[in-house]
UniProtKB/TrEMBL annotation:
GO terms for cellular component: extracellular space. Belongs to the serpin family. Its main location: secreted. GO terms for molecular function: serine-type endopeptidase inhibitor activity. This is Serpin B6. It comes from Pyxicephalus adspersus. Residues 13-288 form the Serpin domain. The keyword Signal applies. It comes from the Eukaryota. The keyword Secreted applies. Pfam families: Serpin (PF00079). Forms a complex with the monomeric form of beta-tryptase.
Amino acid sequence: MDSLSAANGSFAIELYKKLNENDRKCNLFFSPLSISSALAMVYLGAKGNTAAQMSKVLQFEKAKNVHPSFQSLITEINKPGTDYLLRTANRLYGEKSFAFLDDFIGSTQKHYLADLQAVDFTGKSEDCRKDINTWVEQTTEGGQNSLLYTFIALLEQELTYEKFAEIINPSNLEKIEVDLYLPKFKLENYFDLDSVLTTLGMTDVFNVIKCDLSGMSGDNDLFLSKVVHKSFVEVNEEGTEAAAATGAVVMLRCARFIPKFVCDHPFLFFIVHKQCSHILFCGRFTSP
């Protein structure tokens, strides 16, 4: 999984930079792992130049055995018995009139634990939208209740995955106790990613003529029309223990000094799966 970690990390940083171009002053939050795993399922059915472009943009050229590595990663993330709640869920929704290849369906189930749900996008698009949003809300513990809508500076510029990996390398870190002052914040972002991915070089998969998804459907009449992503994070005092009392405190002269770490200016933050070294979420907080 190490090579996949490097691939997904590089994609995360490049995607962050591209999303950051639109507005450098706004809060930003997204899940690069969610995006890359969804696109990896499309990549599973891509052939020719379409597959080559996707591999380059998603940085899969750095990874070995992409799909089995995703299988191992998803299994590790969803492993029970942890002291935190972290779950991933994948599902494919396909127009019921299309004949999807059995090999493709089997591979998505094996590597991404994803079922293919046949729906009537053509005749009942609004019902499909509601069904998808209901599934998303259920699988994210109510955190996302509307993924699909109805629709007919210096550090950041120089940041690379290699530099980021060096920063979080345990051998370069020292564990210390600090008095943390972190603002409560709640971020929610919705992204229409097809234009961003096209700018990064993933063009053919969105082109009705050039797209080659023949590994997904034998008729090869499919193309990717839209990629949407919605993410949510809330940081608050829940889970901490607090108490109040009046009294006098006497400190020894040799008492240990605990430094303050005050987050009072814009900062980047990353949520990383420690065991897998994968960036699950990344964001930028600029204002409450």
